[in-house]
Write a structure and sequence with these properties.
416 residues; alpha/beta; 7-stranded mixed β-sheet; 6-stranded parallel β-sheet
Length: 416
């Protein structure tokens, strides 16, 4: 089933009519993808569309959900909370009751608030928000919602893992923090300061910088500050163009430090890392990556890259989200969010790496093993590079699910 695009282009139906093609009969189960599809972060959103369309094609090939096909419809929120709310309403008007959004915790917060209010006003027409990437810890703590489910580890979980890994590296003496100036960036800097102080009080925080989200085109001044600080390591939650341009500026300046990142694997990141020559010195923490050597993972990665012009499968969590969604709907024998949401709560799932995972019922936070990897030239059993660089992600540490199971302050109200 083709994707329908709203807000940034013609709907497929109109396009088909213009080409003299038969207009397809649209499915009854619509999944609305709402993320940036224009501006600096567009490459991130566009690759996300490929992930969700690939998953929907897989689900439909197996018969869909409860005998109905799924359809992906996409909306450009321009990374704006206000545009997110507008897009969510348009999606509902178009028949979607499943909304998914990942990039930008500001947009995600607006989505949670919108969905809560919509469902209160429209009993019997509830919608659900499936979060694949927005990792502000508040969303599964004080701002938790029955209608929100998150498949990515939140930023405190990731920082717990990163700082535990850094604790065992005596070469780290001086750390510079640089993050985006919005809720997620603030959460990263707060957790980094607190956790480093607790685990390695000898480490100096020699810089703690915030910058506007998706507004900086040249990070050279920031790199100059890092260089002047004497830092040997950088911690950053930057994503999209902000991590790629940060690393590019680092390469241009010849800055030789270790980078501990959440999202260095995004568009442009691997190319910039190779330009820096920082072999085995740029780390990222993820729920999976291409070179985890299991037959199922390698087969999946190879097939997806053939269909996406060589781009890698960035989001194992999208596979987890959509497979669990389909299972919940089929188990519930219903495509109604109010019915199948109960099946998602507490659901156990074995991922493509053969590992057990689960969705915690108390706060709708997904738990799984998470991995720290470093970008390095391909060697040994590494099969996949990134961005045709000849460099790929190599495992450096595994954090077992049991060590990521942080407590929650969520007091979730279930609908009547």
């Amino acid at each position: 089933m083709p994707t329908r695009r709203y807000g940034t282009g013609l709907a497929v139906a109109a396009l088909a009519a213009g080409l003299g093609l038969a207009t397809p009969a649209w499915s009854q189960v619509k999944v609305a993808f709402i993320d940036p599809l224009s501006g600096a972060m567009a490459p991130i959103g566009e690759h996300g569309v490929k992930h969700f369309q690939y998953m929907i094609d897989k689900i439909n090939a197996k018969g869909g959900v409860n005998g109905q096909k799924m359809e992906l419809i996409t909306f450009d929120n321009k990374l704006s909370p206000q545009e997110t709310v507008i897009a969510a309403q348009k999606a509902i008007d178009a028949g979607a009751r499943i909304l998914t959004l990942g990039n930008g915790s500001g947009a995600a917060a607006a989505m949670i608030d919108f969905v809560n209010k919509h469902n209160d006003r429209n009993p019997g027409k509830e919608v659900v928000y499936l979060n694949y990437a927005a990792v502000d810890p508040a969303f599964t703590n004080d701002k938790c919602s029955y209608w929100h489910f998150r498949w990515d580890a939140h930023s405190d979980i990731k920082m717990q893992a990163l700082t535990s890994y850094m604790k065992g590296k005596p070469n780290i003496k001086k750390v510079y923090l640089i993050n985006q100036d919005y809720s997620f960036g603030h959460a990263v800097r707060k957790a980094a300061n607190e956790m480093l102080k607790a685990k390695r009080p000898d480490i100096q925080i020699v810089g703690d910088e915030l910058h506007p989200l998706a507004k900086i085109t040249d990070f050279a001044p920031y790199i100059a500050k890092i260089k002047a600080s004497g830092a040997d390591s950088v911690i950053t939650g930057n994503w999209g163009s902000d991590i790629a341009l940060l690393l590019k500026a680092s390469a241009d300046a010849g800055l030789q430090v270790d980078y501990y990142t959440y999202y260095a694997g995004g568009a442009g990141g691997p190319t910039a890392i190779k330009q820096t020559g920082l072999k085995d010195r740029v780390f990222q923490i993820t729920e999976g990556f291409a070179n985890i050597n299991t037959p199922a993972n390698y087969a999946w990665e190879e097939e997806f890259r053939k269909k996406s012009a060589g781009q890698g499968w960035w989001y194992p969590r999208v596979r987890n989200e959509m497979e669990m969604l389909a299972a919940a709907m089929n188990e519930a024998k219903s495509n109604d969010p109010k019915v199948f949401a109960e099946k998602l709560r507490g659901m156990k799932y074995k991922n493509i790496y053969g590992k057990d995972t689960y969705m915690r019922a108390e706060d709708h936070q997904f738990f799984q093993d998470i991995y720290i990897s470093a970008l390095t030239p391909l060697s040994g059993d590494m099969k996949f590079d990134e961005e045709n660089t000849g460099w790929g992600w190599k495992l450096t540490a595994t954090v077992p699910m049991g060590e990521t199971d942080v407590p929650t302050t969520c007091k979730m109200a279930k609908p009547s």
